[in-house]
Structures are given as structure tokens and as C-alpha cells.
Here is the input.
Amino acid sequence: MALAALGAAGPVKAASETAFVGCRIVPSADALSIADGVLVIREGRIAAVGARGRTKVPAGAERISCNGGTLLPGFWNSHVHFMGPEWRGAERLPATRLSAQLADMLTRYGFAHVVDTGSDLANTLSIRRRILSGEVRGPGIITAGGALVGPTGTPFYVTDGKLAELHDAEQARRLVAQSIRAGAGAVKLMSVSLTREQPFPSIPAETIRAVADEAHRAGVKVLVHPTNRRGVELAIDGGADVLLHTAPIGGPWDARFAEHIVGARVALVPTLKLWGYEAAKTNDTAMAQHFAEVAQQQVAAFRKAGGRILFGTDVGYMTDFDPADEYLQMHASGMAARDILASLTTNPVRTFGAPARQGRLAPGYDADLVLVNGNPETDVKAFADVRRAYRAGRRIDGGARPPE
Here is the structure.
């Protein structure tokens, strides 16, 4: 089911050969860079990659000069939403408009794959179908559909109806099974919900365990919005796979707690930029600074404990799409450029069960790649300065001619 959600057939492949020439190439987060390299795409796959002079550029191939740029594997954003009014009626939106919206929020920043962590399932599946058909240019999409919450657990910021509430383990299993049968490739729940009234509503660990058992039986992951420390503990006890946020309102994580999370094999999407974005709504600069410091400390503790970090920004909820500040805050948390690259590539590929041919630049792999200006290893903001982005050999960043 997870592979089906990724769209294993892929979009329509580019038929011609394309050669990137004179590039600084970083084949993967754990591979040596190629200072002056060549990469050749053929029929949606990488045909060759190596040093210039040792790697043949096919006659007749489209040549793209990197001119000081760096070629990287295609990025994943593991926390996005297709939930604003601009996405409604996706089945009927003009292809050019839908492609432009996807470029504006995602693909112009190099995101070749995304995980939608809360939206209308049928509508997001329509977006995915149109991308897979080749009609629309966009990323690969795994979607969780709508989020699940405990009784009275719809957060205060959800104003368009109520989220599905879990009341017992048996009902939870039924809802999860229905969602997966309908096409969901993940399950999203809020272990603790941020509501106007306290104590915050929560989902018992045994109910989360029922969700996880049903999801894992179908080969999909359980993604949890934790809110606070209690929410993190419930996610761990319930067998969840991914924490979709840090939890700064719960205070710092000591080494023992971070090791507890890592020992449960739970991955983390930090969403560091989000906390300043939220605090700015209150004009409370002290709170913004405090949240940033605590969230970065949690990332540092989690990383030191050996945890798997996934890049994600919560765009779609956040209307500021530029990921540059997320990269800067991850770097400030102690993550080197190669750590950030792993969070964008190999880590999500491993977490979400993506095909083994993704996440690296190597012969036979899908031609998912990003050409950025500059060198992210000397300035992590360069990750966000995208010149071109491709998925399966097809340009998706908005710079290509729109589909017919």
C-alpha cells in the first residue's frame, strides 16, 4: 500500500537524454562529492554520473551547464498540507493553475516528494492522480487524509468542521482500515490536541496502539502531532512511527528522554520555523525566542541520541513557503549540511518505504534531482536557492513549459 501511495508507476517519463555538465555533485548524504561532474538522464532514470572527462555526454543530449551550482538528490518535505481553499475541487482546476500552485508551495524549492499530513483525502488523491497521469507537473504525494483526534479533540485553529474523533480501539481500527482502503498512504493523529480548554484532550495509548496495529498491517506509517511532552509519550507508548513536530511547550528533552524516543524507533520532523511563525501572531518576541531555543534543544538532544530526522515545514498550514529559515534553524541545532541532506533524502526514503531507487544520484535510480545555486556545504541557505528540480526526469519547478 505504501508503494502504491508513492505512485510506483511514476509520472510520464522524459524521452530525450539530458546531461548536466560541470556540476558539483553530491550523490548522497554519505557519499563523496564530485567537484566537476556530469550526470546523464535517460528515460526518467539516471544513466550515468561521474567526473567530467570520465563520463561520456551522449551525442544529441540536451546539455545543461551548472555554472557553479550543486546537483543534489530530489528533496522530500515530510510535512505539508493541501487544505486551503485554493486546492478545493482539484479534479476540475485547470492543469496550468494546479501546476503553478504546486510550484509556488513546493516544487520551486526542490521538493520532488511530499507527505501530506492532513487534508481532504479524495481531493488530494485527485491532485496525485493528475500528477501521475502527466497532466500536471508536481511531486510524488503520500497522503494521510484527515487527522484523527480524541473526544472533543478538534484543535482551536480548525474552523472548518470537526476532525474525526476516536472513542475506542475497535472504532479506531475501522476508521483506519476505511481510510487505507480509500487510498491513504499514512495515518495522522493528534495524541494531544491544542484546544482552548484544558486539560488538552488526548488519545489513550491503547487506542493509538490499535491505530498502529491496523496501519502497520497495511504497511503504512502512523504520524503523530504531539503538542507537548505527554503527547510524545503517548505516541511512543502507542507504537507510532513519526513525530510531526518538536514540542517546545513541553520544555527541553534531557538525554534519557531523547534516547527513549530513539529507542522506540520514532522519527522526528522538527518544523522549527513554525514556532516563530505561530508566536509572531501574538507579537510576543520573548515567547518566539523561547520556543525557538527549546525546539532547537530538542532537535540537538534527539540528534545526539542517534535519532532519524525528517525535513518538514508544515506548509499549506503555514502560508510562508520559503524553507530557508528551516535550514538555518536546523543548522543552529547542530545539524551539518550532510545531516540536513539526509533529512531531505535518504531518511524519508527509509522511513516511508519508498522504492530503493530513490534518495541518491546513481545509475539506475529515478532521476529525482535538484540543481541549487552555490554550495549548501558552505551555506545551508543554498538548499533553498533552487535553479531546477526534476522528478523521474521531468522538470517540475515551474520553469518548464506547462503541460498541454
